[in-house]
Design a protein that fits this description.
By secondary structure, the protein is of the alpha+beta class. It folds into 2 domains: 265 residues, SGNH hydrolase (Rossmann fold), CATH 3.40.50.1110; 126 residues. It contains 10 helices and 15 strands. Strands 7-8-10-11-12-13-14-15-6-9 form a 10-stranded antiparallel beta sheet. Helix 3 packs across helix 10, helix 4 packs parallel to helix 7 and helix 7 packs parallel to helix 8. The two termini are 39 Å apart. The N terminus is likely disordered.
């Protein structure tokens, strides 16, 4: 990030709080194009860059994602206008959106595209969503589009093809955030993200939403969980658009156009205001009541393959003795293969760490990924454990990750209400 006076402005605005937000009421014109279940067709064309002329006094605003950000009316433009209004700054917008982008392509650009990497390093504000163009094909199959047979998706519920791509999406979400924070430190740059609502053929397709909604919700919750580890706020568009049970039809609310994908003027304004409400304060993962925990887990004492898998380990080498002790986890893994990438969805319904002071107990979730290129095997398991005994009123949240043992641990012990 550049060192400019505007970071002082960002912090000042965050401390003062934002004023009232006007709510958009124009639902926009309905599209007349054929319906699609996901984003636009992938393209190799570079996106149109709409950045204003950069000056030493301008605020650099980088946007990454797909057509949900740039299609008219555009979320990225609405948020740019909000930045100008709230911060009183000229905005130099660096547009790196690409229509129909696949998650793997998005990740590859983060690693290799020099201009993008340079813009992220200079950014004062970053807005992004992690695209999911690969979800289109299973969406077509599930809905029987283009003469397809929905049973080809596989699985007892006919959703395995979508379950596979969402599993691999989770694995790449981990890699996206890992790379992003090496380019833009969230404690110095206002990094903001948004998640997705369900894409449907139209406002009458309650059946599709009811069937696919839980998978969409799970993938968006995974994005939020990983983002939280880096202190990056996420506008929870899924919850707002889909309603409390996740089965709402945003087209019926006037938030999404008739194509079932892109937002109306009302939907665009709502998303922009949701991002605005995230504020501008930089990430601060530490507080007086928070203790950072680091260290390593050695290879388990017992590791029994199968479903479920029992993992047991003892005397783990973590930096805080309160969370060392006897570790036991009940693990369930569901494996999905998608081209050269395989992903194991990890669910741990019971995890305990026990020592003389008490027991930490909770759950964990994560992914293991395999690819045909190095590194062959990576694991990410997010734990949330509550303390008992001497640790009553404390929570231990951490990420266990690695390729070969020992695995690394990064997390915090913090106080929890109640």
């Amino acid at each position: 990030m550049r060192t400019t006076r505007y970071w002082t402005i960002l912090i000042g605005v965050a401390m003062l709080g934002l004023g009232g937000c006007a709510n958009g009421t124009d639902p926009g014109a309905s599209a007349t194009t054929a319906v699609t279940p996901t984003t636009q067709e992938p393209t190799t064309e570079a996106p149109t860059t709409t950045a204003s002329e950069s000056t030493d006094d301008s605020l650099i605003y980088v946007v990454m994602g797909n057509s949900l950000l740039f299609s008219t009316p555009a979320v990225m433009h609405a948020y740019r206008d909000i930045l100008e209004q709230d911060l009183g700054a000229a905005i130099d917008m660096r547009d790196h959106t690409v229509p129909g982008q696949f998650t793997a392509d998005f990740l590859r650009k983060l690693h290799t595209k020099d201009r993008l990497r340079s813009d992220l390093a200079e950014a004062d504000v970053i807005l992004f969503l992690i695209p999911n163009g690969e979800w289109k094909e299973p969406g077509y199959t599930i809905m029987g589009e283009e003469g397809r047979d929905p049973t080809d998706c596989g699985g007892e519920d006919g959703l395995d093809c979508l379950r596979s791509v969402t599993a691999n999406y989770n694995g790449m979400v981990e890699l996206v955030f890992e790379e992003l924070v090496t380019l833009a430190d969230p404690s110095e740059t206002a990094v903001r993200a948004m998640d997705y609502y369900v894409f449907t053929p139209g406002e009458d397709d309650e059946a599709t939403v009811e069937r696919t909604g839980p998978l969409w919700r799970a993938s968006q919750e995974y994005v939020e969980m990983v983002a939280a580890r880096y202190g990056i706020p996420v506008a929870q568009v899924f919850d707002e658009f889909m309603g409390p049970d996740g089965t709402g039809i945003p087209e019926q609310k006037g938030l999404v156009s008739a194509d079932g994908v892109h937002t109306t003027a009302q939907g665009t304004e709502l998303i922009a205001q949701m991002i605005r409400e995230l504020g501008y304060e930089p990430a601060d993962l530490e507080s007086p009541d928070t203790v950072v925990v680091t260290g390593q887990y050695a290879a388990p004492d017992e590791y029994i393959d199968g479903d479920p898998t029992i993992i047991r380990a003892t005397d783990n080498g973590l930096s805080d003795d309160r969370v060392n002790g006897d570790y036991e986890g009940l693990m369930e893994i569901e494996i999905f293969v998608d081209g050269d990438r395989s992903t194991g969805l990890i669910t741990m319904p019971r995890v305990t760490i026990t020592n003389d002071g008490g027991t930490w107990e909770g759950t964990a979730t994560g992914v293991s990924t395999w690819t045909t290129s190095e590194p062959e095997h990576r694991h990410y398991i997010h734990h949330t454990l509550l303390g008992t005994g001497d640790y009553e009123g404390l929570q231990f949240k951490y990420l266990l990750q690695g390729i070969d043992y020992p695995w690394t641990v990064t997390g915090v012990i913090e106080r929890v209400d109640g």
